[in-house]
Amino acid sequence: MTNRTRWTRLAVLMVLAVPVALVGTTALADWELGMTYYKQGKYVEAIAEFEATLATAPEYDFGYYMVGNCYLKLKKYNDAVVNYKKAIDLEPGKFAYHAALAQAQLILKRYSDVVATLDRAESLASNAREKQILHRTRGLALANLKQWQRAIADLKQAQPEKNFSVALALGGACRATGDFACSKSAFEKALKLEPDNEAALSQYTSALLESAVREKNDAKAAQDYKRAVEIARRLVKVNDTPDAHKKLGDALLGAKRYKEAVAEYQQVLAREPNNCAAMLSIAQALVPLEDWNGTVEWGRKAASCGKNKHLGYNQMAFAYIKMHKWDEAIAAADKSLAVKPNSTAQQLKQTAIQKKETELHNKRIAEEEKRQQELLEAEKRRLAEEERKRREWEIRQGIAKGDKSKEDGSKKGGSGSGGGDGL
Predict the structure, then answer these.
(1) Residue 107 falls within a domain, yes or no?
(2) What is the pLDDT of residue 20?
(3) pLDDT tens per residue across span 175-226
(4) Contact between residue 133 and residue 145 where contact means Cβ atoms under 8 Å apart
(5) Theoretical Cys-Cys bridge with 283: which of 78, 110, 220, 315, CB 3.0 to 4.6 Å?
(6) Is residue 163 in a domain?
(7) CA-to-CA distance for 133 and 139, rounded, in angstroms?
(8) pTM for the whole structure
(9) CA–CA distance, 106 with 100 (Å, rounded to integer)
């Protein structure tokens, strides 16, 4: 049952509770015929009879109210507003008149008028049913005006567990204020009432993703991402759109199901080849998979379109750093900064510069150590060669001394023998 149908039934009950007090005897037949037409859904005929009554009883506020109801049924909302205001001018103390006027204003999206009408009539709501109408209608108007705190206060009193529109609006209002516990609870209520409602599924998925991003507790964030995957899958089944696949991809990315996330983003690009957000998301999903070439490729594609080109360049810079391609990383960061000054690009550039300097420094040290090692090895070879030559010289000297000793010995031996012979 829609809000309008529910409100109309309540309004009819209020109508029948109002006594016909001002109608003269001559107009009573017109009035009764008008009510008969109204109950039969013949609203044009009913208007004619009610206006005939008002021609003879122009001060009859209830008559204008019924004419307004007929115009509301006929979707002629401006005419309904005119007649409801006439009824209020004649009898400002009846809440039903103000509630009907506010309903017509709500349909016309005159949200400020709705709030003003019901603020004036708030003291007239004397029972639970009237207060329910007040909080629901005003709460919906306040939500559209983005007056979140007042909207939340009203909508919480409008039985969101029984009214889909109230639950949906409450979920959106709480999400806007960052009260994700309230938002998630409201969207759960909405989906219990209408499990396949696309708007509720879409908004709830977004709320879960935002909640997970802001959640400091990793376990709770993981729960949000898990629920977001479930709700987004339902959204895809209800309406298989690129936006639904993008939301599912984001949920899977948060749930660390990276390959599945990439598959969903590819679904988006299959239908919207120039979807820059999907390109960027693929680049982001490839980072934890350490697919650096893929990250560069999709980062470059994301940097070629859309309003967040700098984020694509940032992904490229990050991947280049991981690949130790410092100059490419610096160039990508510079392009990011040229598109939009941002601290991430500045940090990436500084990281690349520092790592490049460190690498060059380490390279110089390594080269110097290599040079010193080569000098040391050369010195060792020189000393070894000198030692070899020294030993060779000593050997040669030793042989020479040995030969001389033998020669001297031979000479001494020869002299002794000759003398003996002479004797």
Answers:
(1) yes
(2) 47
(3) 999 999 999 999 999 999 999 999 999 999 999 999 999 999 999 999 999 9
(4) no
(5) 315
(6) no
(7) 10
(8) 0.80
(9) 10
